[in-house]
């Protein structure tokens, strides 16, 4: 019986972890917060809160430099015209866009577990960036459980260039841990009762 209970616990945990991939989670209907961090000031600024709708573009910059389109599990930045983000020798981090409070409506136990990044190869360091400024790459994108950051400072973006980020959502680590702890506790209780 103990083996059966332990197997059932691990099967349930495996199904939970797999369900995040196969249940087609969707950000549609979620509200996310957009923040900008300009290198010049080094002070993060709240920009706006947008609702994820699909189809439809959620955000366009004031100067119509780029759009930010969020869909079920994808974030895409698309340049509307040629633009660049100046490099400032301030000692602050490069300018970046931070997308916060990313959730799957109805699934509070899911968070971002991994990302896949694709981008235009014609995004290049801008003219005033340091000589050793790195090429734009997937390293310019970072994430945590409910947040994605695009570091664009020091780069030139031609019209129609893009950065696409595909998100994979997984159960929060605490959710699986609690489930396993409960199952293992039940297995221990059953063993105690049998002895």
Automatic annotation (TrEMBL):
Keywords: Signal. The keyword Signal applies. Residues 1-23 form the signal peptide. This is Ice-binding protein C-terminal domain-containing protein. It comes from the Bacteria. Residues 170-194 form the Ice-binding protein C-terminal domain. InterPro entries: Ice-binding_C (IPR013424). The keyword Zinc does not apply. The lineage of its organism: Bacteria, Pseudomonadati, Planctomycetota, Planctomycetia, Pirellulales.
